[in-house]
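Sat 14:20. Reprocessing the chain from the morning session after the first attempt stalled halfway. Input below, unchanged.
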Amino acid sequence: MKSSTVTILCIACALASYSQITYPIVDTDVSDFYNNSTIISTPSIGSPFYGQDATYNGNQPSYTNNGDGTVTDNVTGLTWLKSMGGKISYHDAVIKADTMTSGGHTDWRIPTIKELYSLALFTGRCFGDLAVDKFIDTTYFDQPIGDVTIGEREIDGQVWSNTHYVSHIMLGDTAIFGYNFIDGRLKGYPKYSPMNGTPNKFYFRMVRGNTSYGTNSFIDNGDGTITDNATGLMWQQSDNGTTYNWENALSYAENLTLTDHSDWRLPNAKELQSIVDYTRSPGATSSPAIDPLFYCTPITDPNGNSGQYGYYWSSSPLQDGPNPYSDAVYFCFGKAQGLMELPPNSGNLQLLDVHGAGAQRNDPKTGDPADFPNYFGPQGDVRYAYNFIRCVRNTSTPTSIKGTDLGERIRIYPNPAASCFRVDISPEIELTELELSDLQGKLVQSIHASNEKEILIDVSTVKSGTYLLTIHSTEGSDSRTIIVK
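Finished this time. Tokens:
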């Protein structure tokens, strides 16, 4: 009787821990592998370019078209407008959100930049000013491009968030962070026209539900690591302290052993964005845009100014230009600097914060260090090509009970699924029971197992969303995330 009580307590603790994952990161959907210039076959462990985005599968994108002009993200629990309408000012967007009744709901809001970024897919591609493949699932979401008939570029399809930059860009402009689902970049855009002060207009995709999404829950583990219980990710507390090209950054992460863990990796773009703190910036808080629990190595910028902060590599590609495989995504935890001629045609080149701390841009994966820094694009983005690293790993706490990891001996597929999951069990495992629970720990379904090696779980009547499947065996218990479409 006592052992049964312990088991129940362990299960309850694990479900309570898992329920803390209020900020599940949606995968980037990247499945191709790249070197510095082309698509390659899947790298083997220990070979060059192993550990990039496509190596690891996170929470795969999964959406439900509700048939009423709204789309639900089954991973995040957020519900979105399928179509955005025309470009409007921020002021008008606030009024629009407050008065909307789409889908019979009145709790619509302008998304934060973390909510908005959850929709980004890095399978997109652009070619300079031209749209090629959008950085969003167009099966579910309408995403217009810029109107070239009125002088816009095709890539002028930026979508604004509700997240204002806490400092200023350019020569003192108020900025709002937005994501460009046409060119794959996250930047602070001027709220008002620098030319005449009139409100700028962008697209807005309204959202509702899961008001906790994007809120971190950091714990200092006291051993050089930080755990975010909201995402289920563990991070290096301090960066690596030096800069690498992309290939060497991948290798560094894959070979890192820290606090007895050797399963570290380079984070993908969306994982890395999850630890940006948009309430902080060098201009507003004299710090990088990250929680003070973390440490960022200071740098000297191209003008010789000390006390700046560098870029941090992600494992994700960004496809642009005639060689779409040459660049990878980075995040600016300090100023997103660029060399601008202001006023235009004045000959006065100034190194400015052009996109804001917390911006996401892209750098060449490699190059001669003597050629960097250099400058790129209409805002003269500073390019280093050699950037910092902050590694990440999945924590076992939210997904494992009693420390048991059944690993590849348990296979669940397809995942996501709409009607039925199949669970295959390795012969040496003696299964006893399976429990399907929601993210609040409420039991949805319980299946008694008499040591079967193949079990079908019917979820045809289960509401779409993310669930925890707990697998009990004589060895212990393990839990897996599954998504019902």
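Residues 218-393 form one domain.
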